[in-house]
Amino acid sequence: MSQTGPLGYRRDVTASRTAIQRWRPTPTLLQALATAVLAGAAAALTRRVDLLVLATPFVVVLAWSLATRPTRAPRLTVELQPAVLHEGGSARWSMELTDVGDADQVVTTVEGRRFLDTDPPFGEIVTPVDGDTARQDITVRALRWGAQRLGGTAVTAVSPWNAYRFGPIDVTPPTLQVTPGALLFDLDATTPHPQGLVGQNRSRRRGDGSEFADIRPFQAGDRLRRIHWPVSARTGELHVRTTYAEEDAEVHLVLDASVDVGTSEGVDGAASSLDRGVRAAAALAQHLLRRGERVELTVHAPDPLHVALGVGLRQHRRILDTLSRVHVDVAGLGRRTRRPRPLRAGPGALVIVLTPLVDEEHTGFVLRLAAHGHSVIVVDCLPPDARIGRSDDPLVGLAWRLRQLERGLEIDRIRRLGLPVVPWRGPGSLDQVLRQLSARPRPRVRAR
């Protein structure tokens, strides 16, 4: 029986294996048997009492072990809570062995994984038997987003004097789904050219809102609660306050996951280009959705992913879940992606492209977006000290420097078209750019 969900994973491992698992004698018991037989035979043949005395402890242990041989088959239940957590968070990986009253201790062997840190550390963990149960809890800390599979685990029950053992029982751990960590991110600037019904962005037109616009004479249809009594009393005529309408904006987040440049060391170390892009997309989505914007996510990767336009907490969870399933190309500049499909963005939409700008396909994608008249912001996710390949290979270093020169020319080309290219630096990265875009007239989107 197994139960799997975002809050946890529970499975009875030995429910289908009790027929093939049984207590077996260990090499220690066989060595004690051989020592007792040989020492007893040698004492009888040579008539040496000292050899018989030396054999006595082995005979006692052997007799005691055979008389108390375990007969019950233990049952192993494994549990992981929670099965979904944020980057840098911790989960509890528990293994409980029941019906082990005949055993003396339980040995758990856990293999290590790169982006998982455990307490106790990976290796062999010995747990004493308490009554009829032995339980081992391992705290697992996820150091990087993505699907992180725990290392292979084997559980073995050992009887007193290490005479018999049950197992090892091989456990295939579940996959731990790690979503990008929530970064501290905030935008002081509003989203440019909002075009919706409700939101927190100030519109250029007058309407129901909270930001003061002007005071004008009362007109038929004005609400009485908007009457400005000090001005009305001073002029002798009714005047009302007017405000700017508040609208939401349509924001499209486009993540370039075709390559991963740089070294990834988890939340406590250096970040690769894909780490920066995924965490930036998660931070932007969280902030924009809290402001009431409509957000869509598109991931350009060998296995493309997409989250349709939506709002609210459920949309935020969908985006985090999708980002945690982004495929990482461990070969660096390996498999190439297909040409990105045209983006279905409405008039006044804001497109934020998160890319390291090392792939010519995505440079062309940005240029096509500009040609169609969208408001586009390019977020440069390439780490400043990014390297590829072996650092001691001069040819690889030369090729990377040439690619960086080409990349600089492509960035200059994008900027000459009026598109901002902003390095990702966390909070405040996009404030100035959004203010500049808001000051521009609304672009006219060309039909495809």
Automatic annotation (TrEMBL):
Pfam families: DUF58. It comes from the Bacteria. InterPro entries: DUF58 (IPR002881). Residues 214-379 form the DUF58 domain. Residues 193-212 are annotated as: Disordered. This is Uncharacterized protein (DUF58 family). It comes from Barrientosiimonas humi. The lineage of its organism: Bacteria, Bacillati, Actinomycetota, Actinomycetes, Micrococcales.
